[in-house]
Amino acid sequence: MNGESHQVLRAQLGAYVLGRLDEPECVALQAHLDFCADCRAEVAELIPVAEALAEVDPDRVTDEPAVPPGLGEAVLGRIRAERRTVKRRSARLGIGVTLAVLAGTAIGYGAADLLRATRAPIPLESVAVRQLATRVAASANLVPHTWGTEIKLTARGFEQGAGYRVVVTDRRGADHAAGEFVGNGPGEIRCNLNSAVLRTEATGFRVLDATGATVLAADF
Asked: What residues contact residue 38 under an 8 Å CB cut-off, 6+ apart?
């Protein structure tokens, strides 16, 4: 992937965690996240803020919300510090703007709600995984998000260098792309796979090899 394409994808991360990308954009970004540790780190920073905003009660908003003294400057200072730690400043421009907008919105909706929500641990749901390939051993946890379902997959035994793709099945029996990865033979792999299917609609996931055969599956 060239530098320009990378910058475009990174600029979409804010919209991704807010669930504002259409399906083709979401699938392309999910595939990129499987191979880009920097972008996965950006998503990890943005998700708690987006989830906190989703839980805010709009009826509690007033014309003059109570904001602790100095909070606004503290948020802006954190954003400035984050920007200084990134070498490719231009690639993070879209993310920096998104963080600033989210932070400003959080202040308007109530700083106390945001602080309580960001301290809450991410809920993990363990699922039973069926290994359909003899050499593969795996375990998985689910994370329900406001924008979809995340699969945290830990596995070993996938063919070295072979490509695999993951699909999530919804209640209607339709499959939705959740990302791709490359096998690492006997070495352990840890993948964070993301689907736009909400947890309440997801019924399972499958890992498919290059021929389309299922090598790993789980029912929720």
From this structure: 10
